[in-house]
Design brief:
With 265 residues, the chain is mainly alpha-helical. The chain has nine helices and no strands.
């Protein structure tokens, strides 16, 4: 075989590698955008004023899972490009979108069930109708995606606290995020990038405790002295938290958040 033929073969292999990499990067970006839209959709649904909050949460979960089926279609389309060792070769290109998808799926699952989505449930969601996985889910991406979930739960607690029944929801979210932080801290030394994400998780927990829970607790103590009914207590909390919600929206707008996607769904 001549050197010319050998280098032509190398050229073909490199071209195939670069083409596959570009396809996977584009697919990962599409997965990220769709997942973000689902997260915005869930927040918007949960911010609606309803009487039956439990049924409304289940409705939000169902809507989120339905929209996330579009992500499954993307992974099904790129399945030939991420088989066997090709997945690990291009893992860096696939990982960002995968983590965003796990975050959105975990948020929808929490709203519907109040629990953390399991590794097996995520792997099942990344499988075809016959239960065959599009790829084997890396445990690193599973933990990193769930660590990002705590930030969305913090926003969920803040927005919910300004509505009827928001005090109980804030307590539940606080306890859930606290347990997540304690569990994930044990894996931080072994998962690259998890320690940094846990810093953000701790900040989210502090916001829930300091900016919401401490305010709710202080109001509860003061109103107990005057024996106010729970309905009036909720009204006081709504008034006291409205300025915080306005401040949070202004900060997100000034920081250039992704709110422009919020109306897409």
């Amino acid at each position: 075989m001549s050197f010319h033929l050998v280098f032509n073969q190398f050229q073909q292999e490199l071209d195939d590698h670069n083409d596959r990499r570009e396809r996977l990067i584009k697919a990962s970006r599409d997965v990220t955008n769709l997942s973000k839209k689902v997260i915005f959709l869930l927040h918007r649904i949960m911010n609606e004023d309803v009487q039956d909050t439990q049924a409304h949460s289940k409705h939000a979960c169902d809507r989120g899972i339905e929209k996330l089926c579009e992500v499954r279609d993307i992974y099904a389309a790129i399945k030939p490009d991420i088989q066997d060792e090709s997945f690990w070769r291009h893992h860096h290109s696939v990982s960002p979108g995968l983590q965003e998808y796990i975050e959105a799926l975990g948020f929808a699952h929490y709203l519907g069930h109040g629990t953390l989505v399991t590794f097996g449930q995520v792997q099942a969601a990344l499988s075809d109708d016959h239960g065959v996985p599009y790829f084997l889910l890396p445990k690193d991406d599973y933990l990193l995606g769930l660590s990002d979930l705590t930030g969305e739960l913090m926003r969920f607690a803040i927005s919910g606290c300004s509505r009827k029944g928001g005090r109980a929801r804030a307590v539940q979210v606080r306890n859930f995020v606290r347990n997540c932080k304690a569990d994930f801290d044990r894996f931080a030394p072994f998962i690259k990038g998890l320690r940094k994400k846990q810093v953000v998780t701790n900040q989210s927990l502090e916001k829930i405790e300091d900016d919401i829970w401490s305010s709710v607790y202080a109001i509860a103590v003061r109103t107990s002295e005057y024996d106010l009914p729970p309905e009036m207590l909720d009204d006081i909390i709504i008034q006291s938290m409205s300025h915080y919600a306005h401040k949070d929206r202004r900060i997100n707008r000034d920081a250039g958040s992704d709110d422009e996607h919020e109306g897409d769904y």
